[in-house]
Amino acid sequence: MLSKPLKQALVCAGLIIWVMVVIGGLAYSGLQRQVEFDPEQKFALAAMSADFASSVTSMMAQQYPSLSKTVIHIQQAGCHCNFSNDIHVDRLDYTLGHSGYRSLHVAPSGIPDEVILPSLPAIMVFDEQGQLGYFGPYSSGYFCSADTAIVDRFLDNILADKHVGSAVVSEGYGCYCANKNAA
Description:
Organism: Paraglaciecola mesophila
Order of helices and strands: HEHHEHEEEEHEEE
Structural class: alpha/beta
Radius of gyration: 21 Å
Keywords: Membrane, Transmembrane, Transmembrane helix
Helix content: 25-40%
Protein name: DUF6436 domain-containing protein
CATH topology of the largest domain: Glutaredoxin
Number of strands: 9
Transmembrane segments: 9-31
Strand content: 15-25%
Number of domains: 2
CATH class of the largest domain: Alpha Beta
Pfam family, one: DUF6436
């Protein structure tokens, strides 16, 4: 028969092992969901075109006539990444709203088919002149949270109207869902 201190040590060790297995399983599961934002580099190749930003702006203006000071949040229903992204969206809406920006929340079907967008969630920010300031993923990293934001690096310059051209970001590794509307 085992002594009481030995039983307590075995229970404690078993509990520690169980916690480690659960945490390891969650980490493994989360890592399986980590993908590249632009796995086939279609977005990156399109963005290399000198007229990419003006073309995207022109196509978006056909559906949304007034793009001046507009942020467009693009999320796909059923995407498991929306949960962690929603906190970032709310923070951006709050921050940009104080600078006079309006927010549009659209599904991928609200984006013209000609606009290449491989993964979601994604964001477009149009400056005071209605020109594309940023297009790409919100964040990267394990949770794709506001703590690992990509778009935030560009916002200060866009808000101050000091950005030079458009920032089109295709690089990102994190929680993204394939755009079901992408060709």
